[in-house]
Amino acid sequence: MTNEEILREIDSLPPEGQRQVIDFIAFIRQRYGYLQLRETPASDLSTESFIGIWQDRNDLKDSSAWVRSIRESEWAK
Predict the structure, then answer these.
(1) Which of the residues 3, 34, 62, 63 could staple to 29 if both were Cys, CB 3.0 to 4.6 A apart?
(2) What pLDDT, in 10s, does the model give residues 20-37?
(3) In angstroms, rounded to a whole number, what is the distance separating the alpha carbons of residues 11 and 37?
(4) How many C-beta neighbours within 10 Å does residue 68 have?
């Protein structure tokens, strides 16, 4: 259900029903805490210390093949 559909449904309710919806929203916010969406600046991952830690590992050049071989060896047990 889209926001527009929800608004139409609420608008179609009588005033008492709309008040109940507002009360219910307040209850849910209190129960779960009101989560505000925050805009966090994108970090520059290229400067993180973990970038490049596997660059010299030849076994990880083809990650799909590496995962396949690990699974085969573990599942064969």
Answers:
(1) 34
(2) 999 999 999 888 876 666
(3) 26
(4) 11
27 by DSSP, 3-state: which?
helix
- Give residue 38's identity as a one-letter amino acid code: R
Tens digits of per-residue pLDDT, 35-70?
666 667 778 888 888 888 878 888 878 889 989 999
Residue pointed to by tokens 């970090």: 43
Q: In Å, how far are 7, 46, 65, 71, 72 from 77, measured between CA atoms?
A: 57, 39, 19, 10, 9
State the DSSP code for 43.
P
Retrieve residue 66's tokens. 């590496």
**One-letter amino acid identity for 31?**
R
CB-based contact 18:10 (threshold 8 Å) = yes
Tokens of 62: 């083809």
Q: Residue 49: what residue type?
A: S
